[in-house]
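Figure-free illustration: sequence to structure, shown twice.
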Amino acid sequence: MFWMVALLAEDGLQYVYRVYAPGDALPADLFWTAFHCHDEGPHPRASDRFDAAVIWRNRQPKQESRRN
C-alpha cells in the first residue's frame, strides 16, 4: 500500500510524492517523509505547513485469481 502526498512549493507548483507505508501510518509521518524527499531534490522549497499538504491513500489493485 502506498500514500500520495501533495506539497505546495514556492514556485506555485504542487509536487506529488508516493510514500510506501502501512494503512495505519500517521499523516505527520507521511508528510515529513515527502517533505524531506522534496527537500533533497532540485525543486524550489516546499511549504512546511502540514495543513497545506494533501494526503490520500492509494490501494494497489488486488489481482484476481483465474479459474479455468
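We now fold a second protein in the same way, so the two outputs can be compared directly.
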Amino acid sequence: MQEDDWDAVVLDEGFVRGAAEREPSARARMLAARWRREAPAPQPWRSDKPPAGWFFSRRKRRW
C-alpha cells in the first residue's frame, strides 16, 4: 500500500487561517459584481423610520 502525500495533511482551522491567499466570501463577490453593474442608492445613516417589524415584534402585555 502506498501512502499518498495528502494523507498527512490535516485540514483544521489553524491550517485554513494560516493560508497565505485570502479569497472574499461569496456574498462579498456577489455584491461587488452587482455594484460594478449598478451602484447602490445612498442610504441615510439614521432614518426616521424604525426597523421593519420593530413595533409588532414586542410581546403584548396582559393586564
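Summary for the second example: Residues 9-37 form one domain.
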